[in-house]
Amino acid sequence: MKSFLKALALVLVLMIGITAPGFAGDTIKLGSGGVISGDLAPYGISAVRGVEIAIEDINAKGGILGKKIELLVGDDVCKPEVAVNMATKLVSDGAQMIVGHVCSGATIAANKIYKDAGLIIVSPASTNDDLTLKGEHPNFFRTISYDGAQAALMTSYVKNDLKVKTVALIHDKGDYGKGQMELARKLFEKLGGVEVVLFEGVTTGAVDYSAIVQKIKRSKAQLTMWGGYHSDASKIVGMIKKKKVNTIFFGADGIIGDNFVQLAGKYSDGVYATGPNDTSNNPLYKEISAKHQKKYGEAPGTFFHNGYACVQALAAAAEKAGSLDYDKMRAAMFEIQVDSPLGPIGFDKNGDVIGAGFSVYQVQNGKYTQVN
Amino acid sequence: MRLFNIILGVAVVGVLGFLGIKEIIADPVYFLELFLGGLTRGSIYALIALGYTMVYGIIQLINFAHGEIYMIGAMTALIVASVLGLWGWNSAVIVILAFVFAIVYSCAYGFTVEKIAYKPLRTAPRLSALISAIGMSLFLQNYVMLAQTSEYMPFESLIPDFEFWEPFSHIITSVEMTIIVTTIIVMILLGILIKFTKIGKAMRATAQDKIMASLVGINVNRVISTTFVVGSATAAIGGVLIACHVGQINFMIGFMAGLKAFIAAVLGGIGSIPGAVLGSLVLGISESLFTGYFWSEYEDVFAFTILVIILIFRPSGILGRDTTSKV
User: Fold this and answer.
1) Residue partners of A135: CB distance under 8 A and separation at least 6
2) Residues of chain B with C-beta less than 8 angstroms from the C-beta of A202
3) Percent helix, strand, coil in chain A (nearest 5)?
4) Taking a contact as any Cβ pair under 8 Å apart, which residues of chain B between 251 and 310 contact chain A?
5) Quick one: pLDDT at residue A129?
6) pLDDT of A307 higher than 50
7) Which pLDDT does position A2 carry in this prediction?
8) Distance in Å, alpha carbon of B281 to nearest chain A alpha carbon
9) Phi-psi region of A340 (alpha: psi -120 to 50; beta: other; left: phi over 0)
10) Which residues in chain A have their CB less than 8 angstroms from residue B169's CB?
């Protein structure tokens, strides 16, 4: 009898563990994954703040399907292995839709979990081509244009506007940076007229980049294209200027934003980078930027508006589908048209955003200014 | 076995040298640039490696928290320099005060870390002290992250671009030159300290035999504390100089730099001061040349390959004493 009671007690205890997450409750849980600590934290934090403010706005209007949205935040430190654990935790905490992640490598790793759990994910910042073009991530959407589109803009601008004949392609060996430089190499070969004289990866966080800078100098590249993030980029730019190497520095959205300009200081002047279109005249853009300023006491970061648009898209799809069922939600994602801070956006058959593209910027007097 | 090693060494150097000479003759300036770049990098490693090797020489402990002491030095300098900069002080005064504060703070941290984390474990098995060192390293990293910030912060170079050096700055910048010169001065001072002063003599005695040293009246605890303080001071100097060179710092900079310096110390023969410097220079220069003539993708792979090869053929490092040692 005693052992029966013990067994019963054990079963009861275990059952509590099983049933607890099952109660859906009267809120809709939205999981947000991304990097919010470590050296890439500014990117992730900007996106999460967009998500927070979007949820406040939507909840103020009554939420989705009559339910309020509840936010669950996870930190993947931009590492794929951490991202998987983090995604598992979000799913087991009962997340019903996902905004994230930021770093492409982390998104690719984490999406295995979300796909198995049948969740729609919208990323504000992951631009790797494979996410949408390979067809392996049917549940994935994004509110930022993809690397292919960005690389096409970079290469054509370099060839037609800067009229450069030789380029060096340097990357940080990561999914995002290396992927982008490989695309650029292919596109330069296709375009013709621009010779890739150097293609190299460097170790992130190294104490010294003088050897690679000497190598760039020796290759006589008129332009150095960088695939990677702002902290390494600022070290390399500084070294290029200090060693008086005559080459234009050209990066992508990994170095767009004030962080890069602050770190590189006076050496950042004249650096080119592609980044999301400037939509700062959009009324919603202005409205939510003001809210950010009021709530956090500073101007919004790089992916703030994209993060806001992610939540808008998920909310619109859920309303259209009338439920959170995966198939219905997914079908609705392709049909919706959202008035986002990035302008009116929709999604194409791959899950890529329609209506938000890239522009070319240059640092002039300590500020990124649009040049194309 | 010894003869075999020498023959193998000569053969490897010969083949590389033969391949290298052709490249060097084709473009000597490029080689010089890479070599000097490597020398700077090696000097950077050396300033950190000295602390590792001194502590190891005396208490046979790999002080993994040493990289963090270096980071704290750089952080302190940044804080002092920005505050004094705001007050509009003269830049020469700022440089001196930043260095002084960085050294004092780092020494205080080095001293305290030893008292808290290593002294109670002095009679414990060596593995316990090693784990304690790793714990201290993680603690200091996270402490600085929470107390300061997790983001990279710009570090304005404290060392000006000397005008007389402008014509050569495309080969080696004034900061790089300062790093090399400082390393040489620090090495010479350390050499004098250990060879000719009373405390240096006590250090050597303690390194040889702790119990015997205490029997002849040497205060072993004081000698060990002094070693930590001196090691921390060199790390602080390194921290400030490297931050000037790189132009940015965050709480994680001590990790990779510390790891590379540790490799350099082992490469040169841990416990030996000339060994640490030689190991650092070998590592720095070969990394730089490897990046320049081969592929930078494999720079770290190459650094670790050198370490493995040296450890197979000379387990005690290039200048290490031939004793069996355990890590």
Assistant:
1) A350
2) 296-297, 299
3) 50, 20, 30
4) 252-253, 256-257, 260, 287-289, 291-292, 295-297, 299-300
5) 85
6) yes
7) 62
8) 14
9) beta
10) 242-244
On the question of pLDDT at A201 being above 80, the answer is yes
A227: CB partners within 8 A, 6+ apart: A169, A170, A171, A172, A176, A177, A178, A179, A180, A181, A184, A251, A252, A254
The residue with tokens 């991304």 is A34
CB-CB: which of A205, A207, A212 is closest to B291? A212
* CATH numbers and ranges of domains, chain B: 41-313 (1.10.3470)
HSE-CB at A350 with a 13 A cutoff on CA atoms is 15
CA B50 – CA B84 distance, rounded (Å): 30
Q: Do B246 and A207 touch (CB under 8 A)?
A: yes
Which are the contacts of B174, defined by CB distance < 8 A and separation ≥ 6?
B159, B160, B161, B162, B165
Residue-wise pLDDT for B54-83, tens only, equals 888 888 888 889 999 999 999 999 999 888
pLDDT at A20 over 90: no
- B152: nearest CB among A39, A203, A211: A39
Is the pLDDT assigned to residue A124 strictly greater than 50?
A: yes
Backbone φ, ψ for residue B183 (5° rounding): -60, -45
Ordered strands of the A338-340 beta sheet: A338-340, A343-347, A353-354
User: Residue A148 — very low, low, confident or very high, per pLDDT cuts 50/70/90?
Assistant: confident
Q: What is the pLDDT of residue B222?
A: 92
Predicted pLDDT at B74: 92
Confidence of residue A17 (pLDDT cuts 50, 70, 90): very low
Return d(Cα A153, Cα A176) in angstroms, integer: 17
What is the distance in angstroms between the CA of the first residue and the CA of the last residue of chain A? 82
Q: Roughly how many angstroms between the first and final C-alpha of chain B, as a whole number?
A: 24
Q: Residue range A284-288: average pLDDT?
A: 91
Mean pLDDT of A62-72: 90
Q: Which two tokens stand for residue B115?
A: 């008292």
Which pLDDT belongs to residue B327?
A: 41
Q: How many CB atoms lie within 10 A of CB A252?
A: 28
**Does the CB of B159 have a partner CB in chain A at under 8 Å?**
no
* Residue predicted with more confidence, A243 or A318: A318
Contact across the interface for B299 and A243, Cβ inside 8 Å: no
CA distance A289 to A291: 5
Tokens of A211: 């050897």
Higher pLDDT: B104 or B274? It is: B104
In what helix (H) or strand (E) does residue A359 lie, and over which residues does it extend?
Answer: strand A358-364
Residue B205 has pLDDT above 60, yes or no: yes
Query: What are chain A's domains?
Result: 26-146+281-356 (3.40.50.2300), 148-278+359-370 (3.40.50.2300)
The residue assigned the tokens 């959170």 is: A324
With 0-12 / 13-18 / 19 or more C-beta atoms within 10 angstroms meaning exposed / middle / buried, residue B58 is buried
Token readout for A284 is 């919603």
Mean residue pLDDT of chain B comes to 85
Q: What is the pLDDT of residues A101-123, one digit of tens each?
A: 999 899 999 999 999 999 999 99
CA–CA distance, A358 with A349 (Å, rounded to integer): 20
Contacts of B263 in chain A (CB under 8 A): none
Q: Is the predicted pLDDT of residue B311 greater than 50, yes or no?
A: yes
Of B48, B97, B47, nearest to B76 by C-alpha is B97
Q: At what angle do helices B220-246 and B174-196 cross, to 10 degrees?
A: 170
